[in-house]
Please model this.
Amino acid sequence: PVQWQRSVEYLRSQGVRGVIEFGPGRVLTGLVRRIDRSFGLRNVSNLEGARSRATPAPAPP
Model:
């Protein structure tokens, strides 16, 4: 069985503060919102949306 609530709680305990859902729809971000409203949530429905929101990764030290 899927243990979505436990997974979301684990992410929070590990310091994750935001979730990005890729693909059409908002089912997963909706479930996250119901479990923990403090997460930052974002949906990207297509590749163009992903490119417009992308930021370069910092250079390694």
